[in-house]
Design a protein that fits this description.
six-stranded mixed β-sheet; 23% strand; Rossmann fold; alpha/beta; globular; binds thymidine-5'-phosphate; binds zinc ion
């Protein structure tokens, strides 16, 4: 039986999505067939409750220098990170000569606010092209992966960090022991390591099965992060639930004994116990719902196409890779996917090979239906595309179940 990456305990596989491509590498038409495939299977550890994948994709395959994702593509996320930056500037970074390190800074959506406040900072990101965007505005970025060795180099060159922050990145890193070792080396004794990631409780509650893709190696819960922090000499001292990306949890960890845990930690632990997040049976019933949703989605699209309706997709998300490849949906159902990211346009979706076009293509001639793959930005997108709805168009969503609005 495979072993847990956190506690070495045995893990139970509860869903196998089969062979899936790396989700955030979009082949140009001439590159079709070059995708890297792996077995996307998720497992639960009954000992420490961590949900994790069973096959690790080589990191250079997932995060090449031309990694196309740009965090600043969403207005709501920009506003979110402005608030996060303001919070840290008033707290962890308010001392003299504070030093901020961000793991996975991408295009600087958060880092730039810290820079603008004149606080010493360093972003760490292997995606060179995204990092260049952050650097263009004057932010300092170390191009590379965050791990024990790079953390040692940063510590030697810059001194200790008061805050290591990371949004939507720590769960991507299978070799989490090296990340915590790096945080241990780099953080000031009183510093904190804070990270935000998609929350397992929301994924289970709303059947957000498409949050399972290569990059989300771990699906964190409060209990599993507590176990992880303890394993590596840290302590989970605070948690805060955030509405972004369909449900995110912010975890604050500190060196063991440095800070008193807030009541929120126990409150969320109790909630997780009541939700059944610590029991394998919960994941078995989640798996049954995933199969049901995929069957319904495939049936719905097939029926609409047979009735002569036109269908496109909206948002060439990583999440869509799991939906399209697992459900077996391709260009015969979805003629193209609209996406605002220039780096994805005129390419195709990995594995399913659906062309990606700019939003102008969507607006030029509205389809009858649009599958909203970027459902985590639904509010922003539906407001922006009100005309589609007004002209008779309908959105198709597939979680918590397949429905048309
Ligand atoms: P995400 O769900 O991983 O954040 O990816 C969202 C994708 O959707 C990303 O490729 C950008 C795209 N997008 C649009 O095309 N239009 C929009 O208005 C927004 C917010 C995102
Ligand atoms: Zn475990």
């Amino acid at each position: 039986m495979p072993k847990c990456r956190i506690c070495d305990g045995p893990v139970q596989e509860f869903f196998d999505f089969g062979r899936q491509p790396v989700s955030d590498v979009f082949p140009a038409p001439g590159e079709i067939g070059t995708e890297h495939f792996f077995r996307l299977a998720v497992a639960f550890c009954e000992k420490c409750t961590t949900v994790q994948q069973l096959e690790e994709v080589p990191r250079d395959r997932m995060f090449p220098t031309d990694y196309p994702y740009r965090s600043s593509g969403s207005t709501l996320m920009r506003q979110h990170f402005e608030r996060v930056a303001a919070h840290f500037l008033a707290t962890e970074l308010s001392g003299p000569d504070a030093f901020y390190v961000e793991v996975g800074c991408n295009d600087g959506i958060m880092l730039n606010s810290i820079r603008d406040a004149g606080v010493r900072h360093l972003g760490v990101d292997p995606a060179e092209e995204a990092a260049k965007v952050a650097g263009a505005g004057g932010s300092r970025v170390h191009v590379g992966f965050f791990e024990e060795s790079s953390a040692r180099e940063i510590r030697a060159a810059e001194g200790p960090a008061d805050l290591i922050f990371s949004a939507n990145t720590i769960s991507h890193i299978a070799y989490i022991d090296s990340v915590f070792a790096g945080a241990g080396v780099l953080l000031d004794h009183a510093g904190v390591f804070v990270f935000e990631d998609r929350y397992l409780g929301d994924i289970v509650e709303h059947t957000y099965f498409d949050q399972i893709y290569d990059e989300h190696f771990y699906l964190f819960s409060v209990r599993s992060v507590q176990a992880m922090a303890e394993r590596f000499g840290f302590e989970l001292v605070d948690v805060e639930h955030l509405p972004v990306h369909g449900g995110t949890m912010r975890y604050t960890t500190a060196r063991k004994g440095e800070r008193t845990p807030t009541a929120a930690v126990d409150r969320w632990l109790e909630r997780e116990r009541a939700q059944g997040l610590w029991e394998l049976a919960t994941y078995d019933s989640f798996a049954a719902r995933v199969k049901e949703n995929c069957d319904r989605l495939k049936e719905t699209l097939t029926r609409l196409r047979a009735e002569g309706r036109s269908i496109v997709g909206y948002g060439a998300t990583c999440k869509s890779a799991t939906v399209l490849n697992y459900c077996g949906i391709g260009a015969e159902s979805i003629s193209f996917i609209s996406d605002s990211t220039p780096e994805k346009q005129n390419r195709v979706t990995p594995g399913s090979h659906i062309p990606i076009r700019p939003a102008e293509a969507f607006r030029e001639s509205y389809p009858d239906y649009a599958v909203l793959f970027a459902w985590n930005h639904a509010e922003e997108i539906m407001a922006k595309e009100q005309e589609f709805k007004d002209s008779g168009g309908r959105w198709i969503l597939y979680a918590p179940n397949v429905h048309i609005v």
